[in-house]
Amino acid sequence: MLRFLFRRLVMAAAVAVAVSLITFTLTNFASDPAIAMAGDTASAAEIQQIREREGFDRPLVVQYADWLSSAVVGDFGYSYRMRVPVSDLILSRIPVTMMLGGAALTFAIVLAIPMGVLAALRPNSWIDRTALGVAVLGQAMPTFWFALMMMVVFSVFLGWLPASGARSWQHFIMPAIALGYYATPAFMRLTRAGMLEVMRSDYIRTARAKGLRPHVVLFHHGLRNAIIPIVSLAAVQFGFMLGGSVVIETLFSMPGLGFLAWESISRADLPVIQAIVLVIAVFYVLLNLMADLANAYLDPRIRIG
Amino acid sequence: MGSLRRNVLLAATALVFSAGAAFADEDRPLRVAWDFEIDNLDQYYNTNREGIIFARHVWDALIYRNPDTFEYEPLLATDWEWADDTTIEMTLREGVTFHNGDSFSADDVVYTLNTVSDPDSGVLASRNVDWIESAEKLDDYRVRINLHEPFPAAFEYLSEAIPIYPGDYYREVGPEGMNENPVGTGPYQVESIDPQREYVLVRNEDYYEDSPKGIPAIRELHIRTITDKSTQMAELLSDGLDWVWRLPADQAERLERRPGFEVKFGEAMRIGYMGLDAAGRSGHEALQDVRVRKAIAHAIDRESIVENMVRGDARVIHAPCSPFQFGCDEDAAVKYDYDPDRARELLEEAGYGDGFEMTLYAFRDRRWTESILGYLADVGIDANMQFMQYFALRDLNHEGTTSAFHMDWGSYSIADASAVVSHFFKGSPDDFAQDEELQQWLEIADNSIDEEERLENYRNAIQRITEEVYWLPLHTFVISYAFTEDLDMQAYPDEIARYYTYSWKE
Q: Does B234 contact A164 at a Cβ distance shorter than 8 Å?
C-alpha cells in the first residue's frame, strides 16, 4: 500500500512539472507580459524598460528555471498585474471555487444517483425515459445559456436569487446548478448501467434468496457495488469543475480561481496563470489518487491486487 | 455566442418590470459595475482605465482640466507658470487635508514627484513622469519642478496623470500599502475593499468647497466588477445595480424602451480607423500603391456604417484624430467620398482591375468589420477577416506582419492630437507609414511651446496622412450608459466616469 502511494505521489510531481513547463512555454509564446503590463498606450521604450527591469529579456530556459526553483519551495512570485504575492491571490480565491465545485458536484450526484437507480429498477419504463430526458437536456444545453436563463427567471422576473456575486449561500445556487447539471448525465448513466449489471449478478440473487429485505439488497449489496466507478468519476468531474468554472465564475462574477484565470489570461499575468494551472493540475492528480484510495477501500480486490 | 446571449437578454427585457422604488436621498448608495478589476490601486502601478477612474475620485492632481471647456483650473495648485523653458513654479492650495488627517503641503508634492519620477521606482506608465527631473520645495506652499528638457505637454500630465500622495504615509507604506489602503485628498475616500473586490467609497466630508470637482451629491459609491455584459444587465434589471456602461448599442436601445431606465450615448474621444501598410512592412504588394489605398478610401460607405451600426452621437471623421483633441483640424484632411466607381477606376489605374487579396485584422466588433469586407468585395478586393484579441493584434502590429487592420484608439483620454497622431506616425513599432518628413513635423508639433507652430505642424501631418491614406479615419465612438431613471448623470468624451458630478433626482 505504501509503495502504491509513493509511486502515485512521484507520478503526481512529474505531472505537475510537465504541466508547468508546457504552460510556461505556451503562455510565453502566446503573449508578451511586458506589453500587457505597460498598458494600451505604452511606447516601445517603456515596454523595453519593463522588459529589462522584470527580466523578461532573459532566455526562457533561465526564466523557467528561476520560476521552478522558487515554486518548489512554495514561492510563486508576484502578480505582474496586481503586484501582490501570487500565493496570497490564489489562497484568497480558492474558497469560492471549492465551494462552487463542491456544491455543483453535490447537486449532480444528488440528482443523478436516485435517477440512475430508479431508471435501472424499471429499465425502458417512463421513469427511465424521463430520467434520460432530464439528463440529456443537461448535456445538450450550453452552460452559459442555461445560466443566463436561470438568471432571467430567478433574478430578473421572480427576484428570488441574486444575479451575481458570491456573498452568501444564495449566490451559489444558480452557479452550482449550472455547473453541476452538465455533469449529471455522466453520473446517471454510470449509475444506471452499474445498477443494471449488479442487480443481474449472482450475489444479488443469493441475497434475495436469503430473504433479505428489498431495500437492504438494493442499497447494501447493489448500490455499494454499483457506486465504485462513481467515485472515480466524481473525482474526475470535480477536477473538471475546478477547471471548468472559468465560464460560470466569470458569468456570475464570482471571485474564484476561474475568474482570476480569465482575468490573468486577458492581461498576460504569467505568474498567476502558471500557478493556477499548476494548482488545478495538482488537485486533479490528488483527486484521482484519493479516488483510487477510496476505491481500494470500497473494493478489497483493488487493494490486494 | 454573443448574439445568442443578447437574445436571452431580449427575452428578459421584453418582460421586465421597472426598477425598485425610487427615492431621492443622498444616503442612497450609487451601485455601479465595471468590466475589469483594477490591477493596482496605486495609480502609478496601474494602466487600466478602471484604475484611472478610481484615481480621479480618491486623489486630486495639481491641476484640473475642465472636461467641458478643456481649460485648466486650480486643483491642489492654485497658480502655476513657466519660470523658463525647463522650470515650472507652482503655488499650492492651503488648508487641504488628506483622508488620513495629514495636512497637505509642498512636502507631499515634492515627495510624490521625486519618488515616482525616479527611474528605479518602476512605475508603469513612465512617460507620465519621466519628463520630471526633480521637484523642490520653495516654501510650505510653493514648489519648483525642474524638467530634463522643454516639455510643452507638462500641464496636461500634471492635470490628470499625476495624483498627489500624502508624503509621510507613502514613505511609510510604499506602493504595497497604498494598494491595500489608498489615501488621497479627493472627493471620495476609500471605506473598504473586500476580498470580493467590491470597492466602497464614501464622500470626503472635509473636501474643499471650491474644488472644481465639486462636493459630491451622492454619499456612497459601491463599485463591483462584473465582466459579462448580460450579467450586468440582469443586475440592472433586478435592482442590483444603478449604473452600467459600454453596453452594445442594440442592448442599450432595447433597455431604453423599458420604463424605469434611461440610456445615454455620449460621444467619446475614441476613434475608429483602418490602418494600411503603406511602408510594406508586411510585404503586401498592392497596399504600397497609394492609388490602391485611395480606392479603399472611396470604397467604404462610412456614413452608412455610422448610421446603421455605431449609432448614437457618432460621426464620420476625415482626420486621424478626435475632434475633441487640440491640433485635430478636420479641414486639413483630404476627404474621400463614398464612390465605388472611382474606387474601381483607381484600382484599374494601379493595375489591380481584377482585384487582389488581403487580410483585414480586427478586434472590436465583427459586424463592423464584416460590413467593411462587404464594401471592399464590391469593388473587387477580396479581403478576409482575421478577428482576434486586442493584445494579440497589437503584438502582430508591432511585429509588422499585418497588412491592413481595423482598429480604434482612445488616446488615453488625452485631449491633444499628439496622443494619437504622434503615437502612430513617429516611427514607433505601430508606424506603418515610415514617412520621415511626417515624423519631423510631428517632432516639432510635439515639442514646441508655441501653439501656432504646433497647430501648423499637426495640420501638415494630418494632410500627409490622409493624402497618402496611411490611415483611413472612420468615425468617432459613442459610449452607452444605462442607469435607473432617477439618476442624474453627465457623460464626458474622455471615457472617464465622474461619479462626483452625479446626483439622485428629487
A: yes
Q: Could you tell me if A290 and A105 are in contact, meaning their C-beta atoms sit under 8 angstroms apart?
A: no
Kindly report the nearest CA distance between residue B337 and chain A, in angstroms. Answer: 31
Q: pLDDT (tens digit, 9 = 90+) per residue, B219-228?
A: 999 999 998 8
| Residue of B50, B131, B196, B430 for testing the chain A interface, max A β-carbons within 10 Å | B196
Residues B9 and B230: their CA atoms lie apart, in Å, by: 7
Beta carbons of B247 and B39 less than 8 angstroms apart? no
Mean pLDDT of the B63-73 span: 88
Whether residue B240 and residue A162 make contact (CB cut-off 8 A), yes or no, is: yes
Alpha helices for chain A (secondary structure H): 2-30, 33-38, 44-54, 60-71, 86-121, 126-140, 143-150, 170-181, 184-199, 202-209, 214-215, 224-226, 228-251, 257-266, 270-298, 300-304
Q: What is the pLDDT at residue A177?
A: 92
> d(Cα B403, Cα B285) in Å, to the nearest integer?
9
Which of A48, A91, A94, A148 to mutate to probe the B interface, most B CBs <10 Å? A148
Q: Sorting pLDDT into bands at 50, 70 and 90, what band is B16?
A: very low
Q: Give residue-wise pLDDT tens across range B388-421.
A: 888 778 888 988 999 999 999 988 777 889 889 9
Kindly state which CATH superfamily the domain B3-260+485-504 is placed in.
Answer: Periplasmic binding protein-like II (3.40.190.10)
Q: Which residue of B has its CA nearest to A29?
A: B392
Supply φ then ψ for residue B453, to 5 degrees: -65, -40
Q: Do A165 and B224 touch (CB under 8 A)?
A: yes
In the A/B pair of chains, how many CB contacts fall below 8 A?
Answer: 132
Region B268-478: CATH code = 3.10.105.10
What is the number of helices (H) and of strands (E) in chain B?
15, 18
CB contact under 8 A, A43 and B428: yes
Segments making up each domain of chain B, as ranges: 3-260+485-504, 268-478
Query: Any idea which architecture A95-255 has in CATH?
Result: Orthogonal Bundle (1.10)
User: Structure pTM?
Assistant: 0.79
Q: Quick check: B21 contacting A, CB < 8 Å? A: no
pLDDT at B451: 85
- Strand (E) or helix (H) holding B477: strand B471-484
Q: Where are the domains of chain A?
A: 95-255
Q: What is the pLDDT of residue B195?
A: 60
Of the partner residues A155, A166, A250, the one whose CB lies closest to the CB of residue B227: A250
Q: Is 50 exceeded by the pLDDT of residue B17?
A: no
Q: How far apart are CA B271 and CA B333, in angstroms?
A: 15
Strands B220-225 and B199-203: antiparallel
Q: Nearest C-alpha of chain A: how many angstroms from B116?
A: 15
Give the Cα separation of A289 and A5 in Å (integer): 8
Chain A residue closest to B228 (CA)?
A251
Q: Is B126 helix (H, G, I), strand (E, B) or coil?
A: helix
Could you give the ipTM of this predicted complex? 0.79
Closest approach of B325 to chain A, Cα-based (Å): 16
Contact A252 B231 (CB under 8 A): yes
* pLDDT at residue A37 in the model: 74
Output the average pLDDT for chain B. 89
State mean pLDDT over B53-74. 92
